[in-house]
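Help wanted!
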Amino acid sequence: MSEPLNDAALDQLFRTARTYNGYLDRAVSVDQLESIWDLMKMGPTSANALPARLIWCTSTAAKEKLAACAGGANPPKILSAPVSVIIAMDLRFHDHLPDLFPHTDAKSWFDGNDALIQATAFRNSSLQGAYFIMAARALGLDTGPMSGFSPEAVEAAFFPDEPSLKVNFISTLGYGDPNTIFERSPRPEFGRFNRVF
Amino acid sequence: MSEPLNDAALDQLFRTARTYNGYLDRAVSVDQLESIWDLMKMGPTSANALPARLIWCTSTAAKEKLAACAGGANPPKILSAPVSVIIAMDLRFHDHLPDLFPHTDAKSWFDGNDALIQATAFRNSSLQGAYFIMAARALGLDTGPMSGFSPEAVEAAFFPDEPSLKVNFISTLGYGDPNTIFERSPRPEFGRFNRVF
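Answered by r_m:
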């Protein structure tokens, strides 16, 4: 039975953690990306389906390719971050279930059921996107998740020959520069969006 | 600039945390539910939209109503857990944006765009569902998320007069009984589902 984490940890994960628009000049290594994955992959997904596929853009060329798919204020954020990440999903995730969920024939639950495939991939790759954000924060890093981009452009640029791969959202990653955050938007009290029966 | 959390915290959040099928005989208070919300509400959502709506079933009557909507092995899990939670989403979330995202007219981005409303509600309420799981773990609690239920039945039972509310997934909550967990399903190495460019 676990105890609550201490206040410093709760702050780092939730209360003082913020979405960053710019980062300090401090590199993020591939080892750190692997450490994020090794935490985030432990988070639960339905039937252990793990539908997320992550594309980590660390080179200038890759970040330029991604920035060209984004709109508004997002291209300079993508270009200047140490790493910019595509959180994608594989609509053929169920091909991996004989290996990832070996004790039953879970692949057959999905074969031919496109609506279930789409909903399961979208829901669970979104869960994994949140685990990515939380794992990065747990490791002392910061993120800047974004929805302002053209999915079709990202898919054409990064997955031209893989029609089963679809982008969910994108994010920057690095050591956040506190000068680049906006004022915290309001967060509602429990009673507004929760009911207890 | 933050440092990585210590190993005990990373274990509690990710590495030794598990999905539980049953719970110890230890109550969870409404104060604890509010503490979960006060952490999870800080996690980022697109335009601070916070589309999730949580229904916390703490009474036997509420758990029985939810269990009647679930299939397979799920009804006894729902009934025996201290709390069973519906993570729902509000397809009218954008009505709250003048208040939650006050510096621009974000409501107008969504008005009349049903596809964007649906995708934004589903993606971001899923993110919030993951924040719920991580916040519960951070507070020393355990969860058992589930997709095996009839969405139509849950919506008819809990939101009969609120057609904008749709269920995303459900979960049990409590102090996990280690005798009720399954063997950990395999988790893939970085190279399998990640690419670095």
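OP: Thanks! One thing I noticed: The beta strands of chain A are 52-57, 83-90, 142-146, 165-174, 194-196.
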